[in-house]
Structures are given as C-alpha cells and as structure tokens.
Amino acid sequence: MRMRLILLLLVIFLFGCSKESPIIIQEESESLNETFIDLIEEFDKEERIQYLEFTLIDQQISLNVDKIAILRNYLENHIDQAQAIQEMQLTQIVKHTLDNVFLLSFACENKMCSYLLINTDYEYSQLLADQANIIKIKPSPDQSYLLFQFDRKSSQHPWSTSKLIMIDLEKWEEIPIEVVNEPLMTLNTFQWPIHEIDWLNDSEVTVTIPDIETATTENLTEWYHSANKTKKMITVIPK
Known about the structure:
- With about 240 residues, the chain is an alpha+beta fold.
- The chain has helices spanning about 1-15, 70-75, 80-85, 215-225; strands spanning about 25-30, 35-45, 45-55, 60-65, 90-95, 100-110, 110-120, 125-140, 145-155, 155-170, 175, 175-180, 195-200, 205-210, 230-239.
- The chain has a 7-stranded antiparallel beta sheet with strand order 5-6-7-8-9-10-11. Strands 1-4-3-2 form a 4-stranded antiparallel beta sheet. Strands 12-15-14-13 form a 4-stranded antiparallel beta sheet, with no helix packed on it.
- The longest helix has 16 residues, at about 1-15.
C-alpha cells in the first residue's frame, strides 16, 4: 500500500512538471502585409509569464522571456523597454527547408547587434554574437550544417574582422571548426577579415582571407594599404 502511494505521488509530481509553460511557440496565422512585435503577459496560478510575440507574414512566434535569460536580462536592464522590443527583428533563416529556424537580432547600437539563434521545434536558443553584423548564413548542401559569418567593425582600424560559427543541425549544437593544414588558425573569434565563404561539399568550406601569415595589426595594416591586397583560399572543416 505504501509503495502504491509513493508511485501515485510520483505520477502527480511528473504530471505537474509537464505543465510548465513552453519556451518557444510557433503557430500559423492569417497572411498579413505587416509584421508586429508585442510583449504579452499571461498569468498561471498567479505567476506572471511574459512572451515576446512576433507576428510575421504567415505565422506567429512567441518567446517565453522568463526562460531565455539573455532576453530577460536585456529587457530588465533597458531604460525604454518598449523601444527595445520594437527594435528587435526576427528573421526566418531558410524558408521551406528550415522553416523552424529563426535569427533574432536585438540590442542594436551603431548598426551592430546581438544575435540569438532559435529553433521552434527543439525549443532551442543560443546567443551567437554580440556587437556584430550578420553577413552570411549558408546551410551545407545536405542540410546537415548551418554556417554563419559575422563581421565586427572597430574604430581602431579601417577593416572589419569576422567570426565563423557552425551549427550541427542534427544535434542542434555549435561545433568547433578547424583549418586544414593550419591547426593553430582560429576563425571562430574576431581576428581575421573574411571576404568570401562557400561550401565545397557537405563537410568542407572554402574561406577567402588576406594573404598574410598571421592576423596581427601590423600585418593587416600593411596588407590593407598595399596596392594588390592579395588573398588566399583556405579550407575549413568540422573538428
């Protein structure tokens, strides 16, 4: 009898846990010519739940602010919360093939933003970059990887530096990348200017960068002021 009571209490506990509010919701909506952003408040057993509701052309995406720490902290510390929300932009990355994947830009200043990757099926969110511009988003030919290029400008020099991020679309996690024959070269931090990226096949990416040995300020300054600005092509693979 005691064991049955324990099992019953356990079932009740698990059922209660399953009723937690979702992190991300994607719903179809009527086709509209405009997009809207609203902060919606709901109450569940006197607990306030805040959603950022993005009404796009043919769908509605709701983000549970309380469960996405980076958004909650940003809005809590912003002087003008309404303005901060209206300046956000939610973009569907690859329509038709990756219709559940979005990129949210927010906290924009001097034309540079923070970027949050969102998957509505997995209720997944990850901050990809701060104070940067999104330059390119390229899925691999077999749709197993997603490659992002972000650029960042600096007042210290006239060129932009770039950062590459690769996401495994099956595991839904960021994976490290390496440069073939250049194991010490890092492209996942803002060090090198990147001029072009392209998938060579399902697991190799060609990247065009300045033809210099190392991305020091001295080398990049000399390269930037040179007449030819020669470039080289390297190959990047998942590590």
